[in-house]
């Protein structure tokens, strides 16, 4: 005789092996991109801890290569580079200089680790004296169209240095198209653009601005980065960047914006990246250092949630640690 029984979800949770068999989302090394901060200095072995991001460093070229080498040995496949130039100016000259710090770092890493996928952040804020992501008008407003040529020049200089993927993070309108045209006209039609299409004006970037020494000297980035309250606007940004030729789209930050990531996953078919940003890193680190949470487990839960929501790629400062965790 059959009687009604309730749903017995616990059957598939009974043993570790059964849980392994039915797990829907698994983090692998192919999911991860590790960000690095490289400093323009004569001291190759320069290595300065970033106070607000325990475990992360500003690195000279030699120290960068050594650190990346250890990560590659653990299985790292992709790195994202940010530069700290020796000098900043109003026109962000260091961003597109042929021998700028990111350009040097790209060629160094490609020479040392030819199989490493080197992604470059394309933005001006680390290179401008005022710390904004574009050119300023006399009134101090960030000017959109005059900035596009400089962004395109920056992306081109990265490609010439050997970058495998360029990732514009400035949030100027039209920059994906400007970069695509410039790359194509100069023989780099094979280089993909990973667009920070959906980038919010987030307080979670705080620690990064110490790391990259890129805090705006005045005002904020709200006239170009998105209002955290808006979800439909994210769909318009994504559509615009796809129309301009973006090969991959990014959502940033990650955990507070999983709804956006999930909605984008439903509405488009390009690979999606999520940036688990500096503030998300620092919060977990601080709580773990206080003994309030278990670092390994909260890190793995976080990146699993990001992947489950729809990310194909996760940019995270925990990438090197995760490579250790998933090998255990
Ligand atoms: C450059 C850029 C920023 C981040 C990535 N690219 C800073 C910002 O927009 O203020 C933030 C990354 C992080 O917080 O980890 N525009």
From TrEMBL:
Positions with a binding annotation for 5-aminolevulinate 1: 209, 221
Keywords (A to Z) from UniProt: Heme biosynthesis, Lyase, Magnesium, Metal-binding, Porphyrin biosynthesis, Zinc
EC number from the UniProt entry: 4.2.1.24
Zinc recorded as keyword: yes
Binding annotation for Mg(2+): 237
GO MF terms, alphabetically ordered: porphobilinogen synthase activity; zinc ion binding
Keyword Disulfide bond tagged: no
Residue numbers binding Zn(2+): 123, 125, 133
Pfam families (UniProt xref): ALAD (PF00490)
GO cellular component: cytosol
Enzyme class: lyase
Catalytic activity annotation: 2 5-aminolevulinate = porphobilinogen + 2 H2O + H(+)
Catalytic center residues: 199, 252
Known pathway: Porphyrin-containing compound metabolism; protoporphyrin-IX biosynthesis; coproporphyrinogen-III from 5-aminolevulinate: step 1/4
Family: Belongs to the ALAD family.
Subunit structure: Homooctamer.
Name assigned to this protein: Delta-aminolevulinic acid dehydratase
Gene: hemB
